[in-house]
Design goal:
Length: 85
């Protein structure tokens, strides 16, 4: 879908046509003749895609945070000890 839109915009730009907001607008449910457009395609394997998108940055962030906390504690730059006197 994105490639289709970007391709259409590239063709409009190459042919010298002005790119307007209406060329970027969603066409809606109905065609110009009144018929219904087909349903959009559903993504295959949506859960694994989400997991593959979310988990790697999350794990990298956990690793970096763990190492920074270890570094701060090792050199006593920040200690988690709370002294209530």
């Amino acid at each position: 879908m994105v490639l289709n839109i970007s391709g259409r915009l590239l063709l409009q730009w190459k042919s010298g046509q002005s790119i307007t907001h209406t060329s970027l607008r969603n066409k809606g449910i109905y065609t110009q003749t009144g018929g219904m457009r087909p349903a959009p395609q559903r993504l295959k394997y949506p859960i694994p895609r989400v997991l593959c998108t979310v988990l790697p940055p999350l794990l990298i962030g956990m690793y970096v945070a763990h190492n920074v906390a270890y570094y701060l504690d090792e050199y006593d730059l920040f200690s988690g000890v709370d002294d209530d006197d």
